[in-house]
Every structure is written in structure tokens, then in C-alpha cells.
Design goal:
This protein has eight helices and twelve strands. It is of the alpha/beta class and 250 residues long. The strands form two sheets. A ten-stranded mixed sheet has the order 6-5-4-7-8-3-9-10-11-12, with helices on both faces. Strands 1-2 form a two-stranded antiparallel ribbon. Helix 5 runs parallel beside helix 7 and helix 7 (153-169) packs across helix 8. The chain is globular. The relative contact order is 0.20.
Length: 250
């Protein structure tokens, strides 16, 4: 394994990244609705937590309680990791609640309004510093689309560059960010940042004539390590693990 790379456990990730993922990577996981982006993020997080890596989860699409329920569905007890000071949520959803509210879950370490993109970046870096994230851990962003509600794709591209510089490069903290590509704005954003991020994973959902459903992932690019150059097909087994399917789709 190359120096300063992080091994992701699990059949799918060992197949996709046999040499691990460089610790200073910023990776975008892109696909249309239902393609399995959140599932992949949860399983990346689960793998890192199991190996002792701390996680900051920037929750933008859903409230913290829903995020925790999603992890629970994949056999991850978030509270256990909160007690170990290994899992933190930055809540970028609850600002929508107009009445006064308490923290929605004990994992919430900060709240942000994605309407202010620079303040969001400042909050992220402050949380990283306060919890000694340097050459360890990961930032999970679900999803970048929340920022597209208020910023043009070219403006958001500059923010992503700043985020990559200050988190992935300056602190060597991995970033995995999802992007729903169901709109033209999202597709434009992916085009703007494709050359300046460290990795892009494209996700799709497929099915066979026999009715078997499966998910598909293509490592479009990843800097510094080897990866398969074709679509990889996988499914979720009864134990909620991601399993590679050994067939080719016509």
C-alpha cells in the first residue's frame, strides 16, 4: 500500500481501492437519485470508524436524527462512537426549523447555515482544529447540492477548491462528498471541479431482465493509487455489507 494511504475494509472497497485511498484526497461521489450515494457514504464511514478513524459528518440533506437512523440501518451504533469522541455531526439542516430547538442529537457538535458558505468552511476548520484532526479522520459531506440552492456552479467550484486546500491538503483529512446529478446545475458543477479534485466516483442503479436489482460504481478517476477501469456491480447482502457481483451486464 502506498505511503500515507488509508485502507477501506469491506469487499467492495478492497476491490475498488486495493492500495487504499491517499489520506489527502477529496473525492466526489456523484449520481442521480436512487443510485446509492448515501449508502456508499454510510459504508465508507462505517469502514473508517471500525479502523479507529474519527469522522465529521456534515448533514445538509437530512436532520441529524434521520442521519443516525440511516447509520443504524447499516448496523452502526452512532452513540457508541460519540462516546469514544470518534463521530461528530455538523448540523446544516436544523437552521430551517423556525422555532427554538435544542440539539437534535448528542452527536451534533456545531450548527451551520449553508446559505453562508464561508462561515460553513470556517466552522468546519474550527471543529477540525478543536478535535485534533490532522493526518487522521475524514469529513463526509451529504450533499453538495444544498449549496447549489444559493450559489452558481462556478462559485461553488471555488468553495470546493478552498475546502480541498484547507481540509484535504493542509490537514491531510480525507473528504468524501456526495453530489446528486439530476439537475443541469449539478452536472455543470461536476464539470467545473473534475480537474481539481482527487477522485470522482460515478454511481448508477441497474437491473437484469430476471428482475435482480444491483448498484453500479465507476471510479472515473483517483489520484495516486490503482483502481479498476470499468463499472463494478455490487449489492447489499442480508448483513448490510456491500458485495461485489461477479458478472458483466450486457
Amino acid at each position: 500500500m502506498p505511503e500515507n494511504s488509508v485502507k477501506l475494509s469491506g469487499e467492495l472497497f478492497e476491490y475498488l481501492f486495493p492500495e487504499g485511498v491517499p489520506r489527502n484526497s477529496f473525492i466526489i461521489i456523484a449520481g442521480e437519485g436512487g443510485s446509492g450515494k448515501s449508502i456508499l457514504l454510510v459504508n465508507i464511514t462505517k469502514s473508517l470508524l471500525r479502523s479507529g478513524e474519527p469522522i465529521i459528518y456534515l448533514a445538509l440533506d437530512d436532520d441529524p436524527k434521520t442521519v443516525v437512523q440511516m447509520f443504524s440501518a447499516f448496523n452502526v451504533n452512532v452513540v457508541d462512537y460519540v462516546k469514544k469522541e470518534q463521530f461528530f455531526i455538523i448540523d446544516g439542516y436544523s437552521y430551517r426549523i423556525k422555532s427554538e430547538h435544542r440539539k437534535m442529537h448528542i452527536s451534533v457538535i456545531a450548527e451551520v447555515e449553508p446559505l453562508n458558505i464561508q462561515l460553513t468552511l470556517s466552522t468546519i476548520t474550527s471543529v477540525l482544529n478543536e478535535n485534533r484532526f490532522a493526518s487522521r479522520g475524514a469529513l463526509i459531506i451529504d450533499s453538495l447540492n444544498e449549496f447549489l440552492s444559493n450559489y452558481k456552479p462556478e462559485e461553488l467550484a471555488e468553495y470546493i477548491k478552498d475546502l480541498r486546500a484547507n481540509v484535504s491538503k493542509a490537514r491531510e483529512v480525507m473528504v468524501f462528498a456526495s453530489l446528486h446529478t439530476s439537475t443541469q446545475k449539478a452536472k455543470d458543477l461536476l464539470n467545473y471541479v473534475e480537474h481539481c479534485v482527487d477522485g470522482i466516483l460515478i454511481l448508477k442503479r441497474g437491473n437484469l431482465e430476471a428482475g435482480q436489482n444491483f448498484l453500479m460504481v465507476l471510479v472515473k478517476r483517483i489520484k495516486g493509487v490503482r483502481s479498476p477501469q470499468e463499472w463494478v456491480y455490487y449489492t447489499i447482502d442480508e448483513s448490510k455489507e456491500l458485495r461485489v457481483l461477479r458478472f458483466k451486464v450486457p
